[in-house]
Automatic annotation (TrEMBL):
Name of the protein described by the UniProt record: Tubulin-like protein CetZ
Gene3D superfamilies to which the protein is assigned, alphabetical: Tubulin/FtsZ, C-terminal domain, Tubulin/FtsZ, GTPase domain
Region called Disordered, residue ranges: 144-165
Binding sites annotated in the UniProt record for GTP: 104-106, 136, 191, 209
Source organism per UniProt: Natrinema salifodinae
UniProt family annotation: Belongs to the CetZ family.
Length: 386
């Protein structure tokens, strides 16, 4: 499928950058990636081509005030949407607006941008939004190595990420409330769960953004029917396309969590001799089954973009990918049944994603309509601040 990515604000632009980097040359899944920010320095820190970067609004910032951010969003959204004509937005099967909630730029602009995209295009508009970590707005949280010491350790390029954001929870909740009913679905990425003890955003962001981009690519580059890119590669038996993703995540602003698991496997360069692609006969069935079982378990029970109980999901999607010889059909079907019994509903779809050049088996899991205590915790923190 073809995804159009719009990064807004510091986090959003860096995540858009990472998603672009996760696109492999022979498996394109992006129409375009754009970066929009009020901060020109942050914008220039991305490798998104200049034609697709755009500085808007006030350079001197919004001082973390989300209401000012909403005003700027309303005033400037049309101008940003016009930039999309530099690419091919009409070819997109879906839009993904990447943003970081907690500041004023990304969270402020995203609702108006999403509303504009919904008005202009038929394709669904998903929002991938980071949630702030407690240590950003609560000086007692993770005191071990954060606080002033950690801030001063931040590299000079850390920009506003190194500054405490007392309004972060309030801003994040205000933005989520505006997105509810506007976004087709919301994929929160909870920084609290992704940061290690003592880490600041600036220390962790490259790793986090790469992990998030891997998940996005696994879902949206899914099982292309032309998996060689030129139509010559092995074809997925069950292709996951844009309408499958659409059916699972829905169009009612469901909260979505992404899971991912992978396991390195032996391929041509290792056991099978240089240059020889293993065939199904070369791979022990029991080994292939175990690999698929392992990655499916990690995908469902491992770290999710948003901590939640997978049992609360209303619908689910499973994509199992890797070198074709390792994609054991029965194990993949069993994985899908496992997901089905986990989410307890009938809304489960599955597919495979052959990667002839891959050296790992992976599972990408989409859990849609989940309930998460983290959002309630942030809401409570926002109420305490107000
Ligand atoms: N995962 C991740 N989170 C980030 C990153 N950068 C910032 N964040 C988070 O996103 C929130 C918003 O930060 P930015 O995106 O830099 O802020 P902004 O939207 O540009 O808004 P202002 O700085 O107020 O103009 C922060 O509170 C962090 O929680 C990043 O690269 N990756």
């Amino acid at each position: 499928m073809q995804l159009e990515v719009l990064g807004v604000g510091g986090a959003g632009c860096r995540i858009a950058d990472a998603i672009r980097a996760a696109e492999s040359a022979d498996r394109s899944f992006l129409t375009d990636a754009f970066a929009f920010d009020t901060d020109e320095r942050a914008l220039n820190g991305t490798v998104i081509p200049e034609s697709h970067r755009y500085q808007y609004g006030r350079e001197d910032g919004l001082e973390g005030e989300i209401d000012r951010g909403f005003d700027v969003g309303r005033e400037r959204a049309d101008e940003l949407l016009e930039r999309l004509d530099r690419g091919a937005p009409a070819d997109a099967d879906a839009f993904l607006v990447a943003t970081g909630l907690g500041g004023a730029t990304g969270g402020g602009t995203t609702p108006a941008l999403v509303a504009g995209l919904q008005r202009r295009y038929d394709a669904p508009v998903y929002v991938l939004a980071t949630l702030p970590a407690d240590r950003e707005f609560d000086s007692d949280a993770d005191v071990a190595r954060t606080g002033a010491g950690a801030r001063s350790r931040s590299p000079s390029g850390a920009g506003s990420d190194a500054v405490p954001r007392p309004n972060a929870a309030t801003n994040a909740i205000a933005a989520i409330e505006r997105l509810d009913g506007l976004a087709s679905a919301i994929v929160p990425v909870d920084n609290e769960a992704w940061l290690r003890p003592g880490e600041g955003i600036a220390d962790a962001r490259e790793r986090c953004n790469r992990d998030v981009a891997t998940r996005v690519a696994a879902v949206f580059a899914g099982g292309d029917s032309e998996s060689g890119g030129d139509g010559t590669g092995p074809v997925a038996q069950n292709v996951v396309d844009a309408s499958d993703v659409d059916r699972i995540v829905g169009n009612e602003s469901a909260i979505v969590a992404l899971g991912y698991g992978d396991q390195a496997v032996e391929t041509s360069g290792s056991r099978f001799g240089l240059g020889l692609v293993p065939t199904e006969r070369d791979v022990e069935t029991s080994e292939a089954v175990r690999a698929v079982e392992t990655v499916v378990r990690k995908g469902i029970r491992g770290k999710l973009t948003l901590e939640c109980d997978p049992e609360t999901a209303e619908r689910g999607l499973l994509i199992v990918g890797g070198p074709p010889a390792w994609l054991n059909r029965r194990a993949i079907a069993e994985g899908r049944r496992t997901l089905q019994s986990t989410v307890g509903g009938s809304g489960v779809l599955g597919g495979d994603a052959p990667r002839p050049d891959g050296d790992a088996v992976f599972a990408a899991v989409v859990l849609a309509g989940v309930e998460s205590e983290r959002l309630e915790d942030l809401r409570a923190a926002a109420e305490r601040t107000d």
